[in-house]
Design goal:
It is a single chain. Strand 8 and strand 9 (about 190-200) form a beta hairpin. This protein is mostly beta strands. About 10% of the residues lie in helices and about 35% in strands.
Length: about 500
């Protein structure tokens, strides 16, 4: 007599056998429905044996198939591997879910509903899908790596493009991420560009470590929309604009500056560290800061410049500088000062005073002379107390002594007196030449008495007064004067 447990096991075995028989019969039915035959898929065998409540057997196909295998919505399970060959083109349908190797035997195609998902490989792996999600559920963080196997070099390392359209001339990218190699050394350093297309041109919006400068460059306006910018590690120093038209700056969690359109509120002391606060208006309230002009006016206008050093041009705006003691210039010992009788223009030994007009020197004052750059017009005034006038030609000068005026020229030169550019008299060594008539209105002494000097008269001497028409004899004369007439000595008697 069987136990209750044995009866339960027998019942279970019977149920399993029935289920297995049903599955086998369904498979045979699908085979018959699809037109499968042992001639097309090889030998189809099955066997069963066993006693009460047991069954065993094997079933399957061996050989080469000569037609497609239609599973009629059933699964292919417990597959060791699927081996593919390049696509023959038979049965390929873009609107049918399929997995196949392309005819070029280079791309694996995952086709789903009108070819909206393709995963293929031709040296470059690509994935195409109207809505694609890459997901890795693992304790290890997922990574998407783009790399170039070439030798490291400065240049583009990898790109990610977001294309709107594929054309025969290339894809139309609306946005991109570009990584570049900045330093090709062992460890290397790189940069990253984030950009979009603007009116057909690729434009960088953000650059990270461009030119290996360790900076972040943002090339467009940053709209924060009330978000906060944190500046330190514990997030208590930050900038925010939570209220429209208001900017707040926090330090250590304290609002130190609050900037509004009409006022800037500062809640802490301001230490200028020696710098100036400029552009202050005239104060109107007792708590207003005062500018220097206001302080000077309140203090009676007195301003002390002790230790003052100018750092810009002093524009007097038509006002005067009064009561100046001395003006000193940048060069040592150059200054202008006043004294009880006038002005002093001082320079050290070896320097000069020079006056320019339109960049041309008009007056040069040196320790040994004064040079004029143009004519000296005295406007009917005199030149007084002149010691000597030196002319352009060396040795030609006019000077004075205690008893005379001297007209000097060097050896070989002469003194000429001209009227209307015509020489009237020439004084040279050994001779004086008078070109026209000589009129002497007073006593004239010619030669030196007893010196043996001669006076030559080449023309006639006309005695117009005090003459006698009566012949006189030598014996009646008071004496005579020796004269030469044509080189012959003659006596000129006087009475």
């Amino acid at each position: 007599m069987s136990s209750r447990a044995s009866r339960r096991n027998d019942t279970t075995d019977v149920i399993k056998k029935i289920q297995n028989d049903n599955k086998r019969n369904q498979g045979l039915s699908r085979q018959a429905y699809s037109g499968l035959a042992s001639a097309e898929y090889g030998d189809n065998t099955s066997s069963s044996s066993g006693g009460s409540g047991t069954t065993s057997g094997t079933s399957g196909w061996t050989g080469n198939a000569t037609t497609d295998l239609n599973m009629n919505t059933f699964d292919v399970i417990s597959v060791d591997r699927l081996s593919f060959v390049k696509d023959s083109g038979v049965g390929t349908n873009a609107n049918t879910p399929q997995i196949y190797i392309s005819s070029a035997a280079s791309d694996m195609v995952f086709n789903h509903d009108a070819n909206d998902f393709t995963w293929k490989h031709t040296n470059v792996t690509s994935m195409t899908e109207s809505t694609t999600t890459l997901k890795k559920e693992s304790t290890i963080s997922p990574s998407f790596v783009l790399y170039n196997s070439r030798t490291a070099a400065v240049g583009t390392a990898a790109n990610i493009y977001f294309d709107a359209k594929e054309t025969t001339t290339g894809n139309v990218s609306m946005g991109y991420i570009t990584a570049e190699t900045q330093d090709a050394t062992v460890n290397g350093s790189g940069s990253l560009h984030l950009g979009v297309r603007e009116s057909g041109a690729a434009t960088n919006y953000i650059e990270l470590n461009e030119a290996d400068d360790n900076n972040i460059r943002i090339h467009r306006s940053l709209i924060m929309n009330t978000s906060t910018i944190f500046l330190d590690t514990d997030n208590d120093t930050y900038i925010e604009s939570q209220t429209d038209d208001q900017l707040k700056i926090y330090s250590g969690g304290t609002n130190v500056i609050n900037i509004k359109p009409t006022v800037v509120l500062v809640t802490q002391n301001i230490d200028m560290l020696g710098a100036k606060v400029t552009g202050l208006a005239t104060p109107t309230a007792t708590t207003d800061a005062a500018n220097k002009a206001y302080v000077d006016s309140v203090g009676g206008g007195s301003t002390s410049f002790i230790g003052f050093t100018g750092d810009d041009i002093l524009d007097m705006a038509t006002y005067d500088i009064e009561r100046v003691g001395q003006i000193e210039f940048n060069t040592t010992s150059h200054y202008i000062k006043s004294n009880s009788v006038g002005f002093e223009y001082r320079v050290p030994v070896g320097d000069t005073h020079e006056f320019f007009i339109n960049g041309v020197s008009e007056l040069l004052i040196e320790s040994d002379g004064t040079t004029l750059g143009g004519d000296l017009d005295l406007a009917t005034n005199d030149i007084q107390n002149v010691d000597q006038l030196n002319f352009e030609v060396t040795g030609q000068r006019l000077n004075s002594t205690t008893s005379s005026i001297q007209y000097e020229v060097p050896s070989g030169d002469s003194h000429k007196f001209l009227v209307s550019s015509t020489t009237e008299m020439t004084v040279a060594v050994g001779a004086v030449t008078v070109t026209n008539d000589l009129t002497v209105t007073d006593n004239t002494t010619l030669g030196t008495y007893g010196g043996g000097h001669e006076t030559n008269v080449n023309g006639k001497i006309d005695f117009r007064e005090n003459y006698s028409a009566t012949n006189q004899t030598a014996s009646d004369s008071d004496g005579y004067i020796d004269i030469l007439v044509g080189g012959v000595a003659k006596k000129l008697y006087y009475y």
